[in-house]
Every structure is written in C-alpha cells, then in structure tokens.
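Dear support,

We are seeing what looks like truncated structure output for some complexes. This example has two components. We would appreciate it if you could run it in full and send us the complete token output so we can diff it against ours.
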Amino acid sequence: MNDYENAIEIKDLTKKYDGFTLDKVSFNVPKGSIMGFIGQNGAGKTTTINAILNIVKKDEGEIKLLGLDHEKDEYDAKKQIAAVFDELPFDDRLNAITIDKVFREVFEEWSSETFFNYLDRFSLPRKKKFGKFSKGMKMKLQIASALSHNAKLLIMDEATTGLDPVVRNEILDIFLEYLQNEDHSILMSSHITSDLDKVADSVTFIDKGKVLISGYKDDILYSHGILKCTKDDYKDIAPEDIVSARLNDFGAEIMVSDKAECSRKYSGAVIDPATLEDIMLFYVNRGKKEWR
Amino acid sequence: MKGLIYREFYLSRKTVVYMLLAYIIFVVMITMIIISTYAGNLAKSNDSADTRDYLLSQMYLYAGLIGMAGCTYGHNDLIEKDYKSRWQLYSYTLPVHEKKIMQSKLILRTILLALGFVLAVIAEVIFSAAGKVPVSTEHIKNILVILFVYGSMCIIDIPYMIIMKTQNRGVAFAMIPLVILTTAVGYGTYKFTKFCYAEAARLYPDMKGDAGMMKVAMPYLTKWRDIFLWAGPFILIGIVIITYFWGIKELKRRRY
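Here is the complete output from our reference environment:
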C-alpha cells in the first residue's frame, strides 16, 4: 500500500497543440478533499483531465495519482480511479445488467451489490436500454458505476453540466457522502461555479491553458472582493490592486485580490464578498482591465 | 478481458441472430428446391437434373458467404459505434491494457468467423444430403478459400476501422486500392478467359458453348486454388499477427 498526501499531484504539466498550449499547469488535490477545477470553455480543463488519465500524452511535466506515476503505474492507478464524463460513454443498446457483467470482469473490486444499491437509490431501471434514459438518468448511472469499484479518486469532467438543479443537488449529495471516507478524493471540473460553492474544499482556476488561482476555496473567497465605487473614485485605485474592473453608467465594480489590504488602503470603500463566478468572470477579463 | 469480450458479443449478437435467420431461410429454401428436382413439381421438368447440378455447384458458396459475412458483420461496425458512444475514449480510463482490448476484439472476431465457416460447411452437408450426393471435398476446399480471403479482410478490418472511425470513411478509402485491384483482376480474368477460349478452339473444336473453355480453365483454377489452400493458413495467421500489433499501435496512437 503506497502512502500519499495528495490524491493528485501535477507539476509543470505542458501540452502543446496548434493554437493552444497547456502551459506548466501545477496543482495538488489533497487526499480526502474535493477540488473544483474551473475555467471557461476551451480553458484547458478537459485537456488537463485527459492528461491526468493518460488519454492525452503530455509533452512535459509530472503527474502522480494516489502516489503512483500516471504513466509507469498507469494500470495500478486506474484500478483505483473512476472517471465520469459529461456524456454517458456506454452504448445505447446496453442496460445496467450488462454493464454489471462487463465491469465485474474489468475491475477487481467491482461490487454488484453496491452498483445495484445505487441503481435502486437513483430509481434507475435494470433492464431498460440506456438509449431510453434521460440525461439525468444517464449521469446517475455513470456515477453509480464509478462508485461501485471502490475507487479512491473520482475524476469528473463537466459531470453536472446540462442537468437540472434537482438532479445536480442529488448528485452533489452523493459526492459529499463519498467523501465521508477520508481516503476518497474528487477532482471535479465544471463551469457551474455554484455547484463548487456548495461542495468544493479547494479550487483551481485555469484560463487559456494557465493556472491563475489554486488553493483552498475559503482562502480564495476570503482574499478576493468586489470593490464598488464611483467612476471618479475608480481613477484613484492603484492599478496593481485591480484584477479587472466592470464599468457601468453609475460607477465601477473592481475585483481585488487582497481584500484586507484594500480595505485598509481605501478606507470607506465598499468591498463586497466575491463568489467563484465573480472571480472567474473578472479574471477572464483581466486582459482588458476595464470591461462592461 | 472476459468482460470486454462479453460486451462486444452482446452488442453484436442481434445482427448475428438476424443473419443467422437469413441463412436458415436461404438453406431451407434451397434444400426444398433441390428435393423438388426429384420429388416435387420440378421433377416434372426436363432439365430438373441440370437445375439440381447447378444448385449443388453454386449455392453452397452463397450459403457460406451469408454465414461468414453474417456472423462477422455486427462486430465489424462496432468500432464505429464505440467511437460514437465514446466508449473508445472511456476505455482508456479503465485498468485495461491496449493488448487486452485488441485480444478481446480478435478473439471474438475469430470465433464469429469460425462460426460462419461451420455454417458454410453445414450448408454444404445439407445441400449434398438433399441432392443425394456425397459431400464434395472440392466444395469444402472452396469454402476454405472463402474463409482465408474473407477472413483476412475481416480481421485486418479491426485496426483499419480504429484509424478510419466510420464505415463510410473506411469504405471510401478502401475503394482506392479496391478499384486498382478489381481492374487488375478484371484484366487478368479477361486475358485468361481469352487464352482459354483460344486453347479450347485448338484442343476441343467439337465442344459447344463454354464447355471447352471451362475444360481448359479448370486444371489451372484447381491448381491455383490448391496453391492458395497451402498459402491461405499462413496468410491468415500472418494477418492475425499483423492485426494484433497494428491494432495495439493504433490504440496507443489514439492517445493524442
């Protein structure tokens, strides 16, 4: 049994494509935690996840999964990993009973009992073909199969995208339940930041192939804030304090990355707490500095 | 690997069943026609013996083709469906080496092909019994030729489809060498037929129609077939080995 501190360790991960580069991406997912991996479409989330799963061959960098090298010990690592994608990767002609029979032979620790318990819990039929499942049912099925082989690490790529709030909530509850075991960890990529607000312990924000922020969610939310002021006051704000500013007819909303320092510096200014969505929005527009 | 084979079989089984049904209907119908040439309405016809000879000399080939193509067709287009359903991508997240994936595909394809071959032989046995003639070893040899030719194409189709991803694209690309090959074979056949007619005119001037030409052609065809029967197993085994390593390489190359 290998001992590890981080379920995922990524150091200087680089992958070059024509027109896009994943540039020295580094972050860790601590064991027993859930990390939200956020960024707009095309930011590099899926490429990073595919590199972690060794679906994409990295150009440079190191990736460790559960303390194991993701290439050298690929199959040992994958025995303990479950991947969940935004779409069900099973043929429409299959049903849950067949999937159980297939995975029973693929995963050493596959538990039919756990799988069928999840199906019952999600009210998923056993014999119905997947082609007749709704999107929510398909995602629940994927999660049921992901959680039925005693995986220690769950890697999810946009798993909650396209689901209604009720199903999303139900699925998030399952994740929290899964994390009750302190050996379990989750990396969850999403651009639905409200989901991560609810469940994530830490967050990594990627944009244009580069990691902009990575750390504990509470620290990130605590340090960032939205300073609201008039257009005249905006001119007095030091450029180094501004991530970016949203201007409107009445004034400006400025994202600051050191709320405490800015509170001292600009006493009297109103600094509202920022949500992950605000942070994402302001950071994505950081190149423009001012936007509407 | 058992799980992977099971999945592939499960997804191919319906096509196999439908084609099996077509095979059964074909064999039953031909058998009834053969029996009818001596014990039914066709027996009243003057050329009933010719009809029976014709059916016995040709129909086992069609039954063999239906059997072999029918058994493997459902598995042939599974790779395209795996790309569409994203299983191909998902399979990289499983603790399964590319070797196992290729082995599972090859094992099932070979089993289905062998099943097709057995069906072809069964059809020959049934037709022979219906025609009250012994099972022809010549016919079995011809079925083996079909097995080696079709089997090789069917097996090499696995890595080919991994590259092409869709049947349409695969067929479109295959048309280029196929057109060249067909033209070459067509031209060769034309030259050979012309040669046989010329020889028949010289050697058997009294024979009517194509009989003389066939008499000249048959020793050549039999000789070539027998040479191919020796080479066939080696070609098929060679194709299986190439397919295995090529398939693994292509599966690895899919990891962009």
